Amino acid sequence: MLRNKEIKILYLFCGFVGVISVAAVSYINLTAGILTFISLISIFIAFFLFTRRRYENIRKLSKYLASVYTGQKQMDIRDNVEGELSILKNDIYKVTLTLYEQSELLKKDKIYLSETLSNISHQLKTPLTSMFVMTDLLSDPNLPEEKKEEFLSKITNQLKRIEWLVTSLLKLSKIDAQTVTFKRDNIQVRRLIDKAVEPLLIPVELKEQNLIVNCSEDIFIEGDFNWTTEAILNIIKNCIEHTDRGGSIEITCLQNPLYTEIDITDNGEGIAEEDKPHIFERFYKGKNAGTDSIGIGLAMSKSILNSQNGDVDLDPNHRTGTRFRIKFYRQIV
């Protein structure tokens, strides 16, 4: 405290004024001078103790900020005492708490970015390695013609897989960055489902599956037609891929005062219990996932729906196959 230059000057000034005052009063009346001296000493001691206490609190604040700066665990320095110092303590605590929360979020984002880059690298490395091997084999002049056609077909499929991965990642990054402007059109749900199912009719026919759509034409939602079509398409595609030949996929529409629901149900192999909490995570592949699965389709569907006041989840009570529940919540005015 005494290292503070302003405090030193203040004490010297008060002492100088005190000495002059005591001398002047003592010159007039010695008893009054003694009483004045005692009073000034008492005031000086009280002021000294009060100032030292405030500096002790400031020193604790400084120590607290130093601990925050070095990344140590935070302490709660708030108190319920009135005064400017208490207000300052509370404000400093709020600021440090906000900084700590932001730091934790940045750490999580850094870990997530590292894991995402690792997953992307793995997804690209596998088909690229395969294509390099097949390209080397194609350079053999003695390779049979049917083998050349087979390798070229596989290379084409791998390139399409990479293209789909890159396109999907770009879409997800735009959604995450909130640079996508989702339209708020009035969409007929039956038309939306028909559009989503259209490119999947050939796979359904090849697997001899039965696709059933129970959706009234008087059900409407608000959203972006193209983006929502893609979200529903990915979910239906997932059901088709995990349903055996001759199985069935049923799409049902429901509506109530709170939301419009689209249920997509299959009688396939279902999703393992340990996989259910993670099925909508990016790059997550369950135990029943196919060899060509990337684990990004359902994650993209959920991101698209969440960006339009909607959501998708699994029906926990459905035991045979899988049931996805898509909900579009109504705007409450």
From TrEMBL:
Major location, coarse class? membrane
Please name the top-level EC class of this enzyme.
Answer: transferase
What's a Pfam family this protein contains?
HisKA
What PROSITE patterns does this protein's entry cite?
HIS_KIN (PS50109)
Q: What is its EC number?
A: 2.7.13.3
Instruction: Write out the entry's keywords from A to Z.
Output: Kinase, Membrane, Phosphoprotein, Transferase, Transmembrane, Transmembrane helix, Two-component regulatory system
Top-level division of the source organism's lineage: Bacteria
Q: Name one GO biological process term.
A: cellular response to phosphate starvation
The reaction(s) catalysed by this protein are:
ATP + protein L-histidine = ADP + protein N-phospho-L-histidine
Instruction: Write down the InterPro entries for this protein, in alphabetical order.
Output: BphY/WalK/GraS-like (IPR050351), HATPase_C_sf (IPR036890), HATPase_dom (IPR003594), His_kinase_dom (IPR005467), HisK_dim/P_dom (IPR003661), HisK_dim/P_sf (IPR036097), Sig_transdc_His_kin-like_C (IPR004358)
Show which residues constitute the signal peptide: none
Domain named Histidine kinase: which ranges?
A: 119-332
Q: Would you name any one GO CC term? A: plasma membrane
| Localization terms from the record | Membrane
Q: Which residue spans traverse the membrane?
A: 9-28, 34-51
Q: Which GO terms describe its molecular function?
A: phosphoprotein phosphatase activity; phosphorelay sensor kinase activity
Q: What is this protein called?
A: histidine kinase
Organismal lineage: Bacteria, Bacillati, Bacillota, Clostridia, Lachnospirales
